[in-house]
Design goal:
GO terms for molecular function: L-rhamnose mutarotase activity. By secondary structure, the chain is an alpha+beta fold. Helices cover 27% and strands 27% of the residues.
Amino acid sequence: MKRFAFKMKLKPGYADEYKKRHDALWPELKTLIKSTGVSDYSIYLDEETNTLFGVQKIAGESGSQDLGSDPIVQKWWSYMADIMETNLDNSPVTIPLKEVFHLD
């Protein structure tokens, strides 16, 4: 397993809505993400900057941010596009982060 961390940007004023939508994450999306080998997935919010920080374990080469060709993911991205910074295809602007320290 390897760890993958990334950041995204939430539009100001949407922290509660972002949490609400993720608290009700679609079951088919959960199943898809888990079926690709992603586990131990968390997203944190820096409320001062509206920066979202995601971290997940990956049992392969692809993480949740690599599932954009799936129609379920495309539908989710469209659903979230009004509250996040996105690319032209509605995918969230995602910036991978370099790991500089880890302690087991």
